[in-house]
Specification:
With 255 residues, the chain is mainly beta. It has two helices and 17 strands. It has a 15-stranded antiparallel β-sheet that branches. A two-stranded antiparallel sheet has the order 9-14.
Length: 255
C-alpha cells in the first residue's frame, strides 16, 4: 500500500488546536514495523511545520502476532525549531504501557544539549552498564527530531551523523549515500542512506543484540521531502537483527 502524505492548513480535527498556528503546514504519516515480513506494530504521526518551528506527535501500538503475546501502546511528542539545517529539540516526551507496566520519559534540551532527563519509574542499571557521561549529551537529538533533515540539496541528506538520545540510550547513526529513486511502499522519490550503528553509552556492554547490530547488521534508511519544504523525513528503514530483518515502512494515511 502506497503512502499518501497530505498537507493541510489548520486541519478540521487536529490533536490540539492551541498548538497549531493559522497557516502552519500539517503532514500525516502511518508506518508499520515488521520482522521478517510479520507485522509487529503500527504507528501514526502528525508533523506540524510553522516556519522554523516544528512539533511531531505520534501514537503507536502492537499489531499482528505481537499483540497476542504482549499488548503495547504509547504516545510521543517532540517540539523544537530549526537552526540552519539542523533540527534543535526543546522537549521530548514518551509514555507507553506494556502489559501492566507504564513508563514515562521526559527530556528537556537547552542549546542542543540534553539538560534534564526524567524516567518514571527510574531505570535500573544492571551489571556491565556503560553510563552516560555529560559530554555524551552535547549536540544530541531525540529519536524523532534526529531524523528531520533540512537541506536544499538531496545529495546532502546522507552526509551527516545522527546523534540520538532517547532518555537512556545514547547512540550515533553515521549516514552515507546509498541510492536515490523509488523505494518499496512509497509513491515518490526518496534518498536512501546506509547507516553505521555506533552505541555510545546507556547500555549493557554484554548486550548481544547491540553487539550484533554494531558489528554485523546492514542498516538502510530512506528519506523523502515534506512537500516542497526542504525538510526530509524517513519513509522506510531496514535493519538486520539476530532473528531477522526489521522493516519500518510507510503505509498510508489521510489528512
Amino acid at each position: 500500500m502506497l503512502l499518501a502524505i497530505t498537507v493541510t492548513v489548520t486541519p478540521p480535527r487536529p490533536m490540539d488546536d492551541s498548538e497549531i498556528a493559522t497557516g502552519a503546514q500539517i503532514y500525516h504519516g502511518a508506518y508499520t514495523l515488521a520482522l521478517a515480513g510479520v507485522p509487529l506494530a503500527q504507528s501514526r504521526f502528525e508533523s506540524i511545520l510553522d516556519g522554523n518551528r516544528f512539533t511531531i506527535r505520534g501514537k503507536a501500538s502492537s499489531a499482528g502476532l505481537a499483540s497476542l503475546f504482549d499488548s503495547t501502546a504509547g504516545n510521543t511528542k517532540v517540539s523544537g525549531r530549526f537552526v540552519g539545517d539542523r533540527a534543535r529539540p526543546d522537549r521530548f516526551d514518551l509514555q507507553y504501557k506494556s502489559g501492566d507496566q507504564t513508563r514515562v520519559t521526559k527530556v528537556s534540551f537547552v542549546n542542543g544539549a540534553a539538560a534534564k532527563t526524567t524516567n518514571t519509574p527510574a531505570s535500573r542499571k544492571p551489571k556491565n552498564w556503560i553510563a552516560v557521561k555529560p559530554d555524551d549529551l552535547r549536540q544530541v537529538h531525540d529519536p524523532l527530531s534526529a531524523t528531520l533533515i533540512r537541506t536544499d540539496d538531496p545529495n546532502q541528506v546522507c552526509s551527516r551523523v545522527l546523534r540520538i538520545y532517547d532518555g537512556q540510550f545514547r547512540m550515533d547513526l553515521v549516514l552515507s549515500p546509498e541510492s536515490a529513486g523509488p523505494v518499496p511502499g512509497y509513491d515518490g522519490e526518496a534518498v536512501t542512506c546506509s547507516a553505521q550503528f555506533v552505541p555510545v553509552s546507556g547500555y549493557q556492554s554484554t548486550n548481544r543484540s547491540i553487539r550484533y547490530v554494531k558489528e554485523n547488521a546492514k542498516i538502510s534508511i530512506s528519506f523523502a521531502e515534506f512537500g516542497e519544504t526542504g525538510i526530509y523525513a524517513p519513509v522506510r528503514a531496514t535493519i538486520g537483527t539476530m532473528i531477522g530483518t526489521l522493516t519500518v515502512s510507510a503505509t498510508h494515511t489521510k489528512g
